[in-house]
Amino acid sequence: MEGEVYTEAPAMAYAAYNFENTALELARAQWPNYADQHYLKGCKWSPDGTCLLSAIRGGGMNVFELPPDLYSCDSVLQSRPIVPLNPAISVPEAGLIYDYIWYPGMNSSNPATCCWLSSGHEGPIHLWDAFTGDLRCSYRGYNAVDELEAAMCLTFSADGQSVFCGYKKNVKIFTTGRPGRECDEYPISHQASCIVASQAQPGVVAIGTVRNTVELVSQSDGTFRHLCKLQAHKGGITSMVFSLDGSRLYTGARKDKELICWDLRVPGRPMFVLTRECNTNQKITIDLSTDNKWLVSGGSDGKVQIWNVSEQHYPTVHMQAVIQLVFKSRFVTHQDLNRGLLIYLFPHKIT
Predict the structure, then answer these.
(1) Whose CA is closest to 296, among 279, 284, 311?
(2) I need a surface site. Which of 8, 30, 304, 328 has the fewest CB within 10 A?
(3) What is the reported pTM?
(4) pLDDT tens digits, 288-308
(5) For this UniProt entry, what's an example GO CC term (predicted)?
C-alpha cells in the first residue's frame, strides 16, 4: 500500500562451532539417587532458546531458565564457575512420562505460547503452562472398547495447530484449540514408538514403530495419504529428526548402533549410515542443528558424538580437522547412558 515501508528481515546468523575444543560445563542440575532411581529421562530446549524442559523419573517435569550471563557474552572463560540450575517451574506428573514436547511457536515474550505437551502412563495428554505450571487442558484418546488409552509418543504439527499422538493401533490427530476426545485417526500395523512432523512440508509426519519400520504419511483436512515405508533398522524406532528443508530424515533405534540418513527425494534406500554405541532398549535422542549441518547423538558408552552431515560425501571420522571441516567429534560426558542431548544454536551450547 502507498506510504508503507517494508523492510527485509535480517538474515539468520548461525553459530560457528569448533567441536575440537574441550567442552566446558556451564551449569548443572542434579537429583539424589534414591532407591527408586530419580534418573533424568531427557531434556528439550524451548524453541526460543530461553528454557530447558526436563523429565525426571519419579520427579515430574521441570523448567530451567538459561543463566542470565550467557545471553550477553560472546565467549566463556574456563574460570567461570558452574552455576546451579534450579527449576523455575516444577510439575509433579504422576507415573511414567512417555513423551513431551514444546509448543513450536513458544516465545517467552508471549506467555500464551509458553506451554508444552506431555503424555504418561494410563493418563490423558496434558497441556501445561510454562509460566505458572498450571494444567491448561487435556486431550483424551480412547480405544475400541471406549477405555482411556495413553499416547506412547506425540508431536505438534509445524504450525502448532494439530497434535499427532501415537498409540498401539493408530495415530490420533487432535486440534490444538479443541481439547477433549474428538480427533481423527490413522490406522497403523504396529504400535507407534516415535513420531515427528516435518517443518518444511506441513502435514507430513514420520511414524516410527516398535517393529523397526518408519511410515511417512501426509495429512490434510482429516484425510491421510500413505507416502512410503522405510525399513532397515534392527530394533524398534526410538528417535527421529527431519532436516529443516524436509529432504532428509535421520532415524535411530533401540539396541542398534546405526543412525540412518534417508534421502526422502529417493525413499527406500539409506543415503548413509553412522554408528554410535547403543546396547540398550532405552531411548537415546538425536538432534540436528537448524542449519542442517551438525547431527548430534549420545551413546550408551557415555560419549557424545557430532557429525558434519552437510558434506557431499559420506561423513567419516576425522578427529584432526579444523573448524568448519569437522566430520565427527567425540567427548566424554558421563560414564553412563546419555539419553537426551540437544543443540542450542545461538549461544554455543549442548545439553
Answers:
(1) 284
(2) 8
(3) 0.83
(4) 887 888 888 888 887 888 888
(5) Cajal body
